[in-house]
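Let us work through a complete example step by step.
Step 1: write down the sequence.
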Amino acid sequence: ALNVLEVMQSDHVVPNVVTFNAAAAACEKGDTWQQACALVEVMLKSELLPDVITYNSTISACGKGQQWQQALGILATMRDADSVPNVVTFNAALSAYQKGGQWKQALHLLEIMLGDDLVPDVISYNAAISSCEKTKHWE
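Step 2: predict the structure and record it as tokens.
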């Protein structure tokens, strides 16, 4: 997918958000979190704004790569760009925290969701609970 994106650009075909979203989703599925993060940077530099789908795929890719710090950075980038995270965004970040054993951050993220008037779903709570369980914080 990344090669096709490069060929597209070398053929002077301008990629759009949908093109980058497809590439980010491929990075997520291929466990290549570095490339997913690089795609966000390329988009921002080219003044093509990533959308919630771009960010969700990238945060998820970071989580799958056990890069919770990167996931947090992408979430911060998203919020700085005035892009509005949704429940899927937060669930991807919660999953990254769960994989990284970051139970305090996971619980804090649930608080942020509520403060943003988002209703955590069963996936949100499961990820937070799993974060606590993984680090033996049962109470």
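Step 3: interpret the result. The radius of gyration is 16 Å.
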